[in-house]
Specification:
alpha+beta; single chain; 212 residues; six-stranded mixed β-sheet; Immunoglobulin-like; three-stranded antiparallel β-sheet
Length: 212
């Protein structure tokens, strides 16, 4: 673009100089009916032709569109990867891991005692302290205390074995006992994403087969 501007300026000044010469020489142009001398006729004609040519060139320079500046292609800018926001874990949630003792359907004689042990995982964001309690929810308490404290503190993602002494009822049949946890403020919670499911023990009391 800068080079084109220089060319236009040079042509402009050149045209001005020639126009000046033509105007100054106009006084010497032949009068009507006067024969043109070779020198005067050639000079006038050449001057006119030169002015015409420069005028055309000057007009072309002005109207010519300057060449487009080549754009350097830039590599596409990669936008930062947005990581999805982490889901906020509730303070108190539990997950059943296994029946350490007395799996579902275990058989006992009437009045027989046993120790039930559950293994649970703390899937919440709060530590279960020994002020947390295991509380009976429904079913048959099976001779156990209706509530008792956790044996140890359990941090988030930690495991705990919860054991309780129980006793089989005297009447032979199937029994179920459902339990949950309770925080120091008295809020009860259990298993699952909503903390609404209990953990349990299911036994069968059978009549002892008489010895033969």
């Amino acid at each position: 673009m800068e080079k084109t501007n220089r060319i236009i300026l040079k042509a402009f000044f050149g045209l001005g100089a020639i126009l000046t010469l033509v105007v100054s020489g106009g006084c010497n142009l032949p009068k009507a009916g006067q024969a043109l001398t070779p020198t005067g006729d050639w000079a006038s004609t050449a001057a006119v032709q030169t002015v015409s040519a420069l005028t055309t060139q000057f007009a072309l320079l002005i109207t010519t569109t300057p060449p487009a500046v080549e754009q350097t292609s830039q590599p596409p800018q990669s936008s930062p990867t947005l990581t999805p926001a982490e889901s906020i874990r509730p303070c108190e949630r539990a997950e059943f891991v296994s029946d350490v003792t007395v799996p579902d359907g275990s058989e006992f004689s009437p009045g027989q005692t046993f120790i039930k042990t559950w293994r649970l995982k703390n899937t919440g964001s709060c530590t279960w302290t020994t002020s947390y309690r295991v509380v009976f929810e429904s079913g048959n308490v099976l001779g156990a205390p209706p509530s008792f404290n956790l044996p140890v503190s359990v941090p988030p993602d930690g495991l705990v074995d919860i054991s309780v002494n129980m006793k089989a009822p005297d009447q032979p049949r199937d029994y179920e006992s459902y339990w949950k946890l309770q925080n120091p403020q008295g809020v009860v919670f259990g298993l699952g994403s909503d903390g609404g499911k209990p953990f349990w023990v299911k036994i069968r009391v059978i009549t002892a087969t008489p010895a033969t």
